[in-house]
Amino acid sequence: MHSKSRLALTLALGLGLTSLTAGADDLTPVTVITTWYAQAEHGGLYAAKAMGIYEEHGLDVTIRMGGPQVNNVQLLMGGKSDFSMGYALQSLNAVQQDIPLVTVAAFFQKDPQSLVAHTGVGNDSLEDLKGKGLRIPTAGRVAYWPWLKAEYGFTDDQLRPYDYSFGPFIADEQAVQQGYVTNDGYFLAKEGVEAQSLLLADYGWNAYSATLDTTQKLIDEDPELVQNMVAATAKGWAAYFENPAQANALIKDDNPEMADDLLAYSKNKMQEEGMLLSGDAADGQYGIMTRERWELFFNDMVKAGTLPADLDWEKAFDLSFVDALYTEE
After folding, report:
1. Helix, strand, coil shares of the chain as percentages rounded to 5?
2. Residues in a beta bridge with 176
3. What is the model's pTM?
């Protein structure tokens, strides 16, 4: 068996590396903030919490939900949390703003960001969408929109208002709007609408997402804690896909409106699309990052005019913690 595969199996079984047995009094309190209300896309954290994996690594982890009014970076930098879920562009923007935020693992090798189009109307690829109206929210306009303009020739006159609902999309078969591949089909099927998700990652959008971010200060002061958090969260993701029941129960405790069938749909879609285990992570290396992938994305952002070419982009991440998981002794 390949050395990386052996180690991935070890992670999946919840063994070894930096794990340790600790009593409740010996656990280090840690807080992590997610990107949104509790959902399957946070399953690895919730599995690590629900199944005692964080405790095995000496951590007493509190998971705080993100949301539209939660500024993760501000809370992280203000000492209100120790870790935060994030995404690659946020980390690079932090460097530009001289904010000492550092990504220490990247669990989504593919960003779930999508554009949703009706089937059978000629909008079957990004190339087909050039010149057509697109419903894109503000966050998308400052993230992937400049890249779409640079790579696919889209123009700002294509932008249409976006109200965070599928209502206008359902009413107009030519409508195209931002989506999230892990739940688009679930909601549209409930409305009886036949549509497709054009996953930006399949068209060259190389952003890491569902990253685990922390501060340079914590890395400097307690690298062992950071290593334990990375290792335990990686094991949590492996455990979630093996048996999500305990994690889903905890997700629903935090977010009672979450439906069982949506949790199942999102979990299955993450696996079907290779969200976590594709590319560099294909052999089972949950959370792996590479310098090459970061450089590729940075260069794309420079080309799109989003980031300056002289940015010290390597300050955005620290590979040492995930490298330690997947380097054979």
Report:
1. 45, 15, 35
2. 117
3. 0.91
